[in-house]
Amino acid sequence: MTQLPPARFIDAAADSAPKLGATHQPLRERVRDLIRDRIVRGEFAPGDRLVERVLAEELGVSRVPVREALNLLKGEGFVQDVPRRGVIVTMLSRDDLDDLFEVREALEVQSARLACLRASDAELAALADLARQADEALAAGDRDRLSDCNEAFHDAIPRLAHNRILATTLEPLEGRLHWLLRQNRSPGVLMDEHRELVQALTARDPERAEEIARRHVHTSRMICHELMFGETD
């Protein structure tokens, strides 16, 4: 069993987030998306305890949509129930990480192949622009923008495959890794592989796109293992 760190309670900060109760849009999904985004960005770290009452006060909603949002996030693997602690941000074990990457490899390789065959020229041009923006962010030392561009790049490829079920299946898997890859201090190799993938997609070379996508997943897996467990292979 994974050893959990001491609980760290999340306190609400004044005006740190929009008050969702003032809107007329469905709250459960909006609350879920906001909490997920804060996990991805590292505001809620693995092992942090998420308290319904605190989150409800911070977001300006009742505890019901918060409870529903946390249940959705449990299904996506972002949070978990722990006896005597309540809901915490999920901590991945080595086995969890390897299982996640096995599924991610299968889906991302298929996404790359389908995107190569189905994406429009305009969609591929937009993908290339994301890679270019990431290069500019790296050169400017803007790590937050760099992470945003790289995440947008990964989120875009399943959409370019034009397979709705594939995209919705990959979304939570990608999200569970975004927060970790934001801690990567050597993003150059990942960005190089992004550029290679754009070239293969633009050339409409599905075999090459598959090979690069598979290699990219392996590179990400190695980085995540090093960040989480200090392992280099």
TrEMBL record:
SMART domains in the record: FCD, HTH_GNTR
Domain of life from the UniProt record: Bacteria
Residues in the signal sequence: none
Every HTH gntR-type domain range: 25-92
SUPFAM superfamilies named in the record: GntR ligand-binding domain-like (SSF48008), Winged helix' DNA-binding domain (SSF46785)
UniProtKB keywords: DNA-binding, Transcription, Transcription regulation
Coiled-coil intervals, chain numbering: none
Protein name in UniProt: GntR family transcriptional regulator
Lineage: Bacteria, Bacillati, Actinomycetota, Actinomycetes, Micrococcales
